[in-house]
Amino acid sequence: MSLKSRLMQRCFDLARLGAGYASPNPMVGAVLACGEKIIGEGYFVKDGGPHAEVMAVRSVKPADRKLIKQSTLYVSLEPCNIYGRTPPCTNLILEEGIPHVIVAARDLTPGVNGSGLKRLQEHGVIVEEAVLSAQGKILSEYRNVFVSKNRPYVLLKYAQTANNLLAPKDGSTQWLTNGFSKRLVHKWRTETDAILIGAGTARADNPALTARLYPGKSPRRVVIDRNGNLPPSLKLFDGTAPTLVFRQSKSSTGSNITFFQHDFTQADWLPKLLTQLSGQKIAHLTVEGGAWLLQEFVAQDLWDEARVFTTSANWSDGLPAPRLGKKAAKEFLLQQDHLTVHYNF
Ligand code: AOF
Ligand code: ZN
């Protein structure tokens, strides 16, 4: 692997440390290197906080500061060029006299979207774009979907039998995956803004949707309860994590629950629901089921990624899993569970 790729890979690894806390801001990692020597590095820790580039510059030892003017800044995402809650990172780069900037992907946030790179170039900074761009895009895609499509990035997560069945037909629960997969799913819960399920899944599985098998924060819970008849005794309504409930009719509030009145009779109820979630600063949404809801996302092409566990079970009957129509980009084996990751971009 070339030096450039290695240092960009380091940016990606740093960026991922912000998973779950960066959103709705992007995960960003930055490395300041003088030749092969890393003199500073940082990542975007938490929404509202200092940017990765700022953290990288701050981390430079006083003795190494003189090297900044001959160093290269590697960033997983185009440096921002707007006054948000923090000043533009392009200012910092120019003030510090960093002569060379290498990025993996553009920031599609209105006002940035290439202008950060352009400004740097206009001031004589050598700019290189699209280094490890495919990986960079995966890292930044949730932010870019959020700011350009007025909806959250949608991750579909489900388990299926070897013969592509998702759930028994009678609405009962049948656990498919092993303990390793289950723990991984809890890690993912710490990295997403919210998990959405339909009423059938809420009733059949009574999931808590909190992260218990992995340290980190629990996501918000979102449930579609069109007819408003889910029992209040469900774990979803226990107040342990903020919960958003979408119903056709108006409802009162409950403990840590926000009710949304939503018109499910309209053909565009799903994109509209996603827009509502965007308004709640949900930039990364995981959809956990059931079969009908998952299929709806696929049919309306409103998904960005799918993580699918395929187990060795073979059922004679059941509800079919969605047909994604996208080949697996990544594959993993967790003992006998086969995990595939599919991207729709
Ligand atoms: C960067 N480096 O580490 C991050 C960036 O004021 P804020 O924090 O809301 O910033 C808004 C803009 O900064 C927006 O374009 C967002 O995508 C970007 N985030 N940019 O240069 C970073 N987190
Ligand atoms: Zn910035």
Q: Would you identify the CATH architecture of the largest domain?
A: 3-Layer(aba) Sandwich
Structural class: alpha/beta
**Share of helix among residues?**
25-40%
| Overall number of strands | 16
H and E order: HEEHEHEHEHEEHEHEEEHEHEEEE
What is the general shape?
A: elongated
Quaternary structure: single chain
Count of alpha/pi helices: 9
Number of domains: 2
Q: Quick one: CATH superfamily of the largest domain?
A: Dihydrofolate Reductase, subunit A
Distance between the termini: 26 Å
Structure summary:
With about 350 residues, this protein is α/β, with parallel strands linked by helices. The protein is built from nine helices and 16 strands. It has a nine-stranded mixed β-sheet, with helices on both faces. Strands 2-1-3-4-5 form a five-stranded mixed β-sheet, sandwiched between helices.
Question: How would you characterize this protein structure?
Answer:
The chain has 345 residues and is α/β, with parallel strands linked by helices. It has two domains: 3-143, 3-Layer(aba) Sandwich (Cytidine Deaminase, domain 2), CATH 3.40.140; 150-343, Dihydrofolate Reductase, subunit A. The chain is built from nine helices and 16 strands. It has helices spanning 3-16, 52-58, 89-96, 115-122, 133-149, 179-191, 199-205, 269-279, 291-299, and strands at residues 29-34, 37-43, 72-77, 100-105, 126-128, 153-160, 165-167, 194-198, 220-224, 243-247, 257-261, 284-289, 305-310, 319-320, 330-334, 337-343. The strands form three sheets. It has a nine-stranded mixed β-sheet, sandwiched between helices. A five-stranded mixed β-sheet has the order 2-1-3-4-5, sandwiched between helices. It is elongated and about 70 Å long. Zinc ion binds at residues 51, 53, 79-80, 89.
